[in-house]
């Protein structure tokens, strides 16, 4: 889709997406966590740096309005804007992936869902080795359209329950002691 291509082209190397590093303590509760989750992957490095320097809720509201105006520009008539798609998917992710008090749209699964939509296939994968956890796998088609971040989704995303939260599984997590006993806690098998 050409709609999202311009957003991807404008991107530079990103800042970290750790929630603590994306929190702006100078802003009120409505705005302080705005960058956490999919927005951090949609925003350019410059936008992230600018947002973290804002000192008032009024500045944050104006920034957010401009952020969406830039992304909604050129949307064909009778087509949902990126902002409308984002807002709809955030509501869905909050219903599907909220864990405890952590909003689903700010979670790893919620972020992927908001950016790329429903995966083509979801299933649980048994580990190849006894010291690896069972993972929830999401698969997207090879010819998937670019997401709200202007990027094509990876073919597969793997998630694992780590403590009270489900997180994106990475190779670096293999030695994490919190992954013990996951094989007993997660369901096995099909969809």
Task: Offer a quick outline of the entry.
This protein has helices at residues 2-9, 29-32, 38-42, 45-52, 57-72, 82-97, 108-116, 182-185, and strands at 121-125, 135-139, 156-162, 165-168.
Mean pLDDT: 85
What's the structural domain tally? 1
Largest sheet: 4 strands, antiparallel
* Share of helical residues: 25-40%
Which features does this protein show?
single chain, 191 residues, alpha+beta, 4-stranded antiparallel beta sheet, 4 strands, 11% strand
Describe the 3D structure.
This protein has eight helices and four strands, in the order αααααααββββα. The protein has 191 residues and is of the alpha+beta class. Helix 6 (82-97) runs antiparallel to helix 7 (108-116). The model is unreliable at 1-14 and 183-187 (pLDDT under 50). The chain has one domain.
Strands, helices and their partners?
Layout: H1 2-9, H2 29-32, H3 38-42, H4 45-52, H5 57-72, H6 82-97, H7 108-116, E1 121-125, E2 135-139, E3 156-162, E4 165-168, H8 182-185
Antiparallel strand pairs: 1-2, 2-3, 3-4
Helix pairs in contact: 6-7
